Amino acid sequence: MTLQEIINDSKRVVFFGGAGVSTESGIPDFRSVDGLYNQKYDYPPETILSHTFFMNKTEDFYKFYRDKMLCLTAKPNKAHLKLAEMEKAGKLTAIVTQNIDGLHQAAGSKNVYELHGSVLRNYCMKCHKPYAVEDILNGSGVPKCTCGGTIKPDVVLYEEGLDNDTVEGAIECISRADCLIIAGTSLTVYPAAGMVRYFRGKHLVLINRDPTPMDEMCELVLHDKVGEVLDKIVL
Ligand SMILES: [Zn+2]
């Protein structure tokens, strides 16, 4: 079956997306070799984006974070737009994403499970007052709440656990889906591989530039750009 035939045959599509979905909007992939590893920083991104680093070197964290993580000029691409259309048309029940850029919601998607949180939400660690991303971007040094507490992005850092409700909601949607499209992820990163095991539906589709360990399990594998592939779907 082609992707179009699979979509025609499905009523409850769930889309599981990784970094590859956002790179087409110009947002760098932290885990790819041509990503940020080769850039000039005192520490590797995985160290900077860890809970320990945030707590101990908060100012250095924010220097990197403002510079590299807040791509607020990024716009939804063809993949985001088509998925929002599919939800409106009643074809797609949920998006599960590893990305933290909020681009699915910007494209109009409503039911989005953000496994790793969102840069658009920020909270005071002391009184939990919410702050907009602009408050982080436009400030300098360590962003502080009016109460004096430190503001932290609602992003899951390395060493931190995922939000339980988000994980459970995502698994629930995946287990009820009749079609699961995995895209832009190599599926080697927790929890992607584990969550896919909850899928019991008919059509398992994988769209990724490079081959993944999951390729052989899937009904359809497309080694292509996610936006290009999804854009061709006719609803
Ligand atoms: Zn506060």
Automatic annotation (TrEMBL):
HAMAP family hit by this protein: Sirtuin_ClassU
Binding site for NAD(+): A19, T23, F30, R31, Q98, I100, D101, H116, T185, S186, N208, V226
Entry's cofactor comment: Binds 1 zinc ion per subunit.
Alphabetical keyword list: Cytoplasm, Metal-binding, NAD, Transferase, Zinc
Top-rank lineage group of the source organism: Bacteria
Source organism of this protein record: Ruminococcus albus
Keyword NAD: yes
Binding site for Zn(2+): C124, C127, C145, C147
EC category: transferase
Protein name (Swiss-Prot/TrEMBL): NAD-dependent protein deacetylase
The keyword Cytoplasm belongs to this UniProt entry's keyword annotation: yes
